[in-house]
Sequence to fold (485 residues):
Amino acid sequence: MMLDIQNVRKRFGDREVLKGISLTVDKGDVVAILGPSGSGKTTFLRCLNFLEKADGGALVFDGAHFDLHTASKADIARVRKKTAFVFQNFNLFLNKTVLQNVTLGLEKGRGMKKNDARAAALRALEHVGMADRLESYPSQLSGGQQQRVAIARALASDPEIIYFDEPTSALDPELIGEVLSVMRQLAKEGMTMLVVTHEMDFARNVSNKVLFMADGTAVETGPSRDFFENPKADRSRDFIRSILAARE
Amino acid sequence: MAFHSLGRERGDSMVNEHWQMLTESFPQLLEYGIKVTIPLSILSFALGLAVAVTVALIQYANVRFLRRLCRFYIWITRGTPLLVQLFIVFYGLPDIGIKLSNYLSAFLVLGFNEGAYMAETMRGALESVPRGQMEAGYCAGMNYVQIMGHVVLPQAFRTAFPALGNSMIAMVKDTSMAASITMAEMFRQAQIISGQRGDVLLLYCEAAVIYLLFCTALTWLQRLGEKLLAKRGGVRA
Fold:
């Protein structure tokens, strides 16, 4: 076990968004976090990287214990060093080139030497097929290309786990494929990934685990195949049925 | 016939007089413009920009007490005339034992005055930078200062550039206010020469032309700067 997420709770005002979510992640797991919109998936993911401060809950990461509510700045930095985050809206640095987008964090955030950062960035950009656009600015790229650069930025820091927050939701339909194929490639190579997504094919065929959430609770957690072929909870069944119906 | 030529002669000599006045006074005024107006503008602008960035960053970071202090400063400064501020600092403060030279008074008042306007410009520009980049920076392991310095502020400056250029132009013109606190700058010099030798209209028009020259040059620089920024990768292409 690499990451044990325990009982994450969060409320916005008087609305309880996360009512105690737990999840165990092994090395190499690709976990699809599914659920209707408003179920708290994104908030859950953001709490894990302290982008949102949880009201309660804990992480056991490589044997070290972190309280999600009271973690110190140093603890937050430690967790973030081992993880990377890919956003729905890419969040590339708009004043930096493709190459600089990847190297900036390596140099400033992780104190890498310039040449090492450049080498790591080139490897990562090669990986996502963006090595031919090093000097382009984000505004000159398509959404799919921007997201691939964002994935390279995540990859370059050599994280133990990458969180993806609806990585294809902001993309035009014809651009979704290129991003998913990069993610599929990463999964194949054994990268540990937590993916909030609405892409059912990805959840079914690439992920090995599913966390199905509704109304801030974990309704069903288990192997992807079981979830899709033999869902236990009524809400899971309804969800799968509605997705399939929407597709036809 | 004789009358006619006399009139023309007098006319010619008047033109000559004006022309002589012009050729004598214009270089004098220009010298004051270059030696006083421009340095004062640049120094005050630098002070104003430093104040503006500080005030804008404090408001962006949202520290409650400091934020109130900043709003208070902006409220006072924007709500009172520049001329009154100059008089308070130069003529008023000596009453409580603070004596500042006219140059220093002008520098401080102009800087803090324009600083209040530029602070609002910078605050708007900072807020226009998508906040998600801040989060991406944190996730990449950077801290607040690093993200500000490398990602957010450069974009904010780019957005604010045209408005800051306008502030600079306003600053050049506002330096003429320093004449009212006996500062020997260009406009004051025009007043003095015209007091000694008459030709009021001509001298004030000369001063106006020199201000116009300076501001035209600045407008030109502003446009050049915008072109260069646009070339260096379009944030807002």
Remarks:
- Strands of chain A lie at 3-12, 15-25, 30-34, 56-61, 64-67, 83-86, 161-165, 192-196, 209-214, 217-223.
- Chain A touches chain B through 29 residues (CB under 8 Å).
- The longest strand of chain A covers residues 15-25.
- The CA atoms of residues 91 and 150 of chain A lie 8 Å apart.
